[in-house]
């Protein structure tokens, strides 16, 4: 059971967070506080594995909170919540291990829990190492946004752009496909000269009436086509999983 503590000064947000926790197996909201000072004593008593903090909380900065909890032998994971996705970049720079967009909902909270991979109390609670946390930074008209690599189903090159595909949308990236493959090579598999897929989301291969094969990915209707050149390599890699 993962023990969670919420630091938020909005009563409605606290209620929504509690409801979100109730919808997730293996998580328990052990307490909440409206400010960081009063939460210190509570966290020392309750020993949460995860602390979720409102980004706009007055009287303290996330960086100071991170410094404080990192003094512990096995620190809890500290995550930030905000009404604005644009705050994500600053939150991660301050040392937060995760980011939630308010209002609180169970699905994003569940995804956050699954991707908190740094050595901390959460990993001890669920047992062992589960990998590393990586993020893709994306520029748009609204500023910078941060997408966890765990949410990416695949990348593909489209003329002069590279697209990052999640279960909900496609995002434009500035980085070339080859650079992404080099960086995330242990997490990704090249299936075509213009596409690499996330191994964690691969469900299998589907043979089409044309004789081609398409990668089936979780939560997507269609994945990328596998080229003839890469088919043997893809089959061998999937067979070894």
Describe the fold and architecture.
With 241 residues, this protein is of the alpha/beta class. The chain has two domains: 2-126, Rossmann fold; 148-239, OB fold (Dihydrolipoamide Acetyltransferase, E2P). The protein contains eight helices and 15 strands. A hairpin with a 4-residue loop joins strand 9 (161-165) and strand 10 (170-173). The longest helix is centred in the N-terminal third of the chain and has 12 residues, at 11-22. It is elongated.
What layout of secondary structure does this protein have?
Elements: E1 2-7, H1 11-22, E2 27-33, H2 36-46, E3 50-54, H3 62-69, E4 77-82, H4 88-93, E5 98-101, H5 106-115, H6 121-126, E6 135-140, E7 143-148, E8 154-158, E9 161-165, E10 170-173, H7 177-183, E11 188-192, E12 195-198, E13 202-207, E14 213-217, E15 225-226, H8 228-239
Parallel strand pairs: 1-2, 1-3, 3-4, 4-5
Antiparallel strand pairs: 6-7, 8-9, 8-12, 9-10, 11-12, 13-14, 14-15
Brief sketch in words of this structure:
With 241 residues, the chain is α/β, with parallel strands linked by helices.
Give the strand content: 25-35%
Regarding quaternary structure, how should these chains be classified?
Answer: single chain
User: What string, H for helix and E for strand, traces the elements in order?
Assistant: EHEHEHEHEHHEEEEEHEEEEEH
Largest sheet: 5 strands, parallel
- Which structural class matches the secondary elements? alpha/beta
Describe the structure using short key phrases:
alpha/beta; 8 helices; OB fold (Dihydrolipoamide Acetyltransferase, E2P); 2 domains; Rossmann fold; elongated; five-stranded antiparallel beta sheet; 241 residues; five-stranded parallel beta sheet
């Amino acid at each position: 059971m993962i023990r969670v503590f919420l630091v938020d000064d909005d009563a409605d947000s606290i209620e929504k967070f509690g409801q979100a926790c109730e919808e997730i197996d293996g998580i328990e909201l052990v307490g909440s506080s409206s400010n960081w000072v009063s939460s210190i004593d509570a966290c020392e008593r309750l020993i949460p594995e995860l602390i979720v903090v409102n980004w706009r909380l007055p009287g303290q900065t996330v960086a100071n909170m991170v410094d404080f909890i990192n003094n512990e032998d096995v620190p809890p994971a500290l995550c930030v919540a905000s009404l604005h996705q644009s705050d994500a970049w600053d939150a991660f720079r301050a040392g937060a291990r995760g980011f939630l967009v308010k209002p609180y909902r169970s699905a994003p909270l569940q995804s956050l829990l699954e991707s908190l991979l740094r050595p901390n109390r959460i990993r001890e609670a669920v047992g062992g190492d589960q990998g590393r946390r990586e993020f893709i930074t994306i520029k748009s008209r609204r500023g910078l946004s941060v997408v966890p690599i765990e949410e990416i189903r695949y990348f593909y090159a489209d003329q002069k752009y590279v697209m990052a595909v999640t279960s909900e949308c496609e995002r434009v990236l500035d980085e070339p496909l080859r650079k992404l493959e080099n960086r995330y090579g242990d997490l990704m598999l090249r299936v075509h000269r213009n596409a690499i897929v996330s191994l964690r989301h691969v469900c299998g291969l589907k043979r089409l009436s044309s004789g081609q094969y398409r990668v089936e990915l979780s939560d997507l209707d269609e994945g990328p086509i596998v080229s003839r050149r890469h088919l043997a390599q893809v089959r061998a890699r999937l067979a070894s999983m």
